[in-house]
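EI: anyone free to look at a 449-residue chain?
SC: sure, send it
EI:
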Amino acid sequence: MTSLNLEQFVNERPIGRFHINVLLWIFLALVADGYNMTVVAFAAPDIARLRGLDPATLGPVLSASVIGMFFGAPLFGWVGDRWGRRPTVLLSCVVYGLATLALLWTSTLTSMFWWRFAAGVGIGGLLPNAIALMAELIPNRSRAAFIIIAFIGAFVGSAAPSAVMAMATDANRISALWLAGGLAPLLVAAGAAWRLPESLQLLATRPEQRPRLLATIRRLQPGGKLASDLTIDSGRHAGKMEKGLIRQLFSGRLAIATPLLWICFICSLAAIYFLSNWLPLLFVQRGIPTADAAWITALYHIGAGVGSVVISALMDRLGFLLLTGLFFSSIVPIVLIAQPTTSVVFLGWATAAAGFLGQNIQLALNAGAGVIYPTRFRSKAVGAAFAVGRTGAIAGPMLGGMFFGMKLPMLMLFAIPVAPMVVGGVCAAIITAVLYRAQQTFRVSEIVD
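SC: here you go
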């Protein structure tokens, strides 16, 4: 009888077409995801102008998708662990695609809020399952790097609304934003249904899925022959979960890593969502034309995309040490953005630097969370981290709306993203020390009791 250890098999495969295919479809799904996360922020100045609204009243609409993500991440994380990462990725794309298309027919801020909430449920569901799927199909030597490269797609998508705005006329600009945001994820879901594979470890836990498991193994090993009496060894991932999720998340070394990781998620998302949602309106408030404000904001996401290339090369080796440095260094460009100037060039460089450093904190967190948790509850664990982190993502835009309405000085407004960067940096430093003491390396790896 021939035995195949899945974990060893995946880790020994050379990077090839199979892995690039997985990366491509997750990348495209995250492009559509990133677009839908920021599209309302780009549309907000036009919505406020055309409806004669005070920008502060748009706070709930800007936060609606984040609230939806709070529910979508754990819900779809549970669905992914139960029914599969692949179908859940496809379902998530369909949900937020249809919800964004529905905005074409909204006439009130209330209906816009609820459709954005529904889109957020789908967006939140995509992230933990995309991370878990890549973590289980990519060799451990390249796992964090592949997750980070895939999330470059989110940065590309986050900046894409500015390109749609540039191509559309003033009369149909908002409709064009909604149409592009709705169609893109539906097209991605159709393509991924054809080519995206399922997790080997997950298939191995379901005897009825053995034909799919063997077919996927053959895709990973083209030309290789499988013995007719082949048995599959899932390694330490085998078996059912013996403890509830809460006990698993807080057992052994995870008892320290999980709460600190959650605080990092909260802090990172509070800062990122404040800047992503309010930068266009804050720039317009300074007297910068709407078109220039849109392009400066796009630089925030473009800077993040450029920075992610650097992060992908360093995360596997430096782990949470790199994350600590990103938290503290991102404070500098945020403070520079807050300086009283209307210079488009100065603000462009400062905003790009804030994206380069600050947004990649979340990228590093995604990679770290996707690796340190075991396969048997990885989607739920990452989903829980995203869900808890959404409290920061909700608070950032909402506090921005409240402080914006109070007409506070610019420096005080930008204290909103600076404060969580300090707290997150301290927590990341503690995680770094704990993991290094346990593993004697900064490299990101699964935490085993």
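EI: The two ends are 31 Å apart (CA to CA).
SC: 👍
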